[in-house]
């Protein structure tokens, strides 16, 4: 029993323990349940609070269900705490930092309140970087624990387009008015920031003809704002697209990708900004318009075209910011994200806006009306621009603002047209001056040729009154209208230079001048501008010159582009230039066209703007003359005194200072109305006595860019004689004199002998001057008249025999030069036979011509016609005279002397044809030299003949003077 009770007690105790444990467990579970319930309730409240917004819940908790519950209070406390924690960094720094950022990125009117600036005129010019942000409202973070505000701003102009959307989308809605005010405020900021004229506004409203942005209306008076017809959106979009095309082909030539980068690199922008504001109605545009709008949006910013679209669907991948107006005083912006609320800026009173716009308009009008001068084309500092990628300089003004021309890869060459008196020369002066002031002579060289009668380019060379010259000019050709060959020479020179540059580029494994300059930064590779005024003269006749000119022009025009060689061709009448228009390959390269008033054919046929131009204006067109490329400019007077001449002086002085007076070389001047002086011609001046068996005989000057002397060499081989042909005595004697004097300079005294025979009275003075100059130089000279001719020729014939007989053709013998003035005048004397030997002077002359050169006896003779030379030479071949120079002889008469080839040549004053059968395939045109400074002025009576040191018989004869001018003491034979 006791045992049973014990067992029972134990069971009871176990049950009690179990009950107690179960009760504990139940209590814990109930507690846990209560805790979980409370937690869950708090979470639900937290969720509700979060959904409702912490700020709103804290402001008005009663709005939320269960707000009386303790869990709600706890949840709200925690949410507020958490928000404070999360926002702590923002609260401490965010609004302040953003305020500073806007203050920095949006200086002056870009962010300041309108009261501080509205009505004052902007002063910023386009060279300084534009503000990167423009303020439009005040933002705050509604959820932030503290309601700190900061400015809301958007990037505009070069940076981004702007899309404004009204949430309600209805036209009449208040938000739409806010949108208009917002646009107006932004435009006013821009218009008041910059100098009037730099911001042009275009407004299109699908629903309204006028009345949009009424406060800005005064801007329309000066064209700063254009209101476009609601039905003509296509026109506006096309106009904007044209701007983009034109800016790409003008301002952005030379590798710049945007006007912004152009301004940053060069300090000039050249184009205003165009802000196009399009008000839509929320509906998409027609497909074509939409595409055009997208194109403008894509390419516009680089060209200063900025879009502000209101309620117009537009998608652009980048550079588009948006503002969505949710209510008149509430906006969101892509700049600030969805969590920030923006209150648009206050709108200034309408009359204040109108007054400010009137002031901007008037200032712009008066700026536009001011007369811009040549000096306004010039930069503040000379020679600061780099020509690596191209050349660009203003040439005139549109609305008072400079308009530039560009020469580079995209528009390599220029065609300028305008009738006589329309101002072509003046335009060229303006253009060259503007370029020359910007680019140093190491960046730009000029080759200038004027086919006009007159000397308009002579200004660029030193003159008697003005010693200055244009430092960029390397060659100036004036009065060349009869010397079309000079045009050819210039084109040939350019073609050679082009090849030289291409070779240098190839060596550096590149193809263009631009790349060559990058690879060879120390090299001197200036761009070349070559002007040919009245270039139609080049094609004046259907002859070899014209066809060669066309071929060369095509070559230079096509390949010059990449080698930095730019042609500028000007003409009063380009229409008739068959060789030019007949070769599209040439004129297609002339992308830049300049048409002066009444110019025909320079622009494309349906572009008649030039016909209506007022005086002193020009159409500048970088699009091969198509209409949308037209830029009408007013051209300042560049030829009046104190314009170009003053600039030239400044440039010249700087050039002398930089290079040193002795190194500063003036341009070579080719003046077709003057003969070049023999003294001063480097080929003559540089001749020195040398031991040579091939002395050079100079004759005249070749028509080339360098001013090279035409020469032949007198080596000891058959045919090395020279005939001068034709009746032009002055020219013929000049050639004879040049040849003798040039030979004289190549021998020391006693190392050459001269016999000078003057066979007409007319020539004795010239011949004597040459003889006495040679004598003064120490040479042995025998001067004879017709009376001594027979004996002289006999002596020469003996000399030839003697030297031939010596076997070595007298190789060491002193060379002997027979200079004969008017050989044909002595024909009858020459034909006279010696009674005993029956040998005539003619026989002896022929023998001297034939055999002399090999023995160092050369003849330089003047015959007054080609036929008379043939009479002297007889019926045989003419190759004993291997070279000739002909003046006033028709081409066909010369054919037999040039291996029968067809020679088209009409004689011209002071121009000769030179043919050396050993080197020439065709004769070349030469100018005789002016010897006045090269010969002794003394024309006194020749001295009496006394001695003959070279075994020549002493000339005698009653009818002429004769003299041996040896410079030595004369002794009787
Ligand atoms: N923009 C201008 N402003 C004032 N005067 C000008 C202007 N352009 C030209 N002139 C004057 O007009 C005259 C003729 O100009 P220019 O010699 O340049 O014309 P052109 O077309 O070259 O004529 P031509 O072919 O007959 O020489 C000159 O006296 C010149 O000073």
Automatic annotation (TrEMBL):
For this protein, the record's SUPFAM superfamilies field holds: P-loop containing nucleoside triphosphate hydrolases
Binding-site residues for ATP, renumbered to this chain: 418-425
The record ties this protein, via InterPro entries, to: FtsK/SpoIIIE/SftA, FtsK_dom, P-loop_NTPase
- Lineage, broadest ranks: Bacteria, Bacillati, Actinomycetota, Actinomycetes, Actinopolysporales
Keywords in UniProt for this one? ATP-binding, Nucleotide-binding
Cite the FtsK domain residue spans from the record: 400-605
Instruction: Reply yes or no: does the keyword Membrane apply.
Output: no
Report which superkingdom the organism of origin falls in. Answer: Bacteria
Which Pfam families does the record cross-reference, listed alphabetically?
A: FtsK_SpoIIIE (PF01580)
Residue ranges of the region described as Disordered: 934-973
Under PANTHER family, the record lists: DNA TRANSLOCASE FTSK (PTHR22683:SF41), SPORULATION PROTEIN RELATED (PTHR22683)
Q: Which CDD domains match?
A: TrwB_TraG_TraD_VirD4
User: What organism, scientifically named, is this protein from?
Assistant: Actinopolyspora righensis
The molecule here is called: FtsK/SpoIIIE family protein
A Gene Ontology MF term for this entry? ATP binding
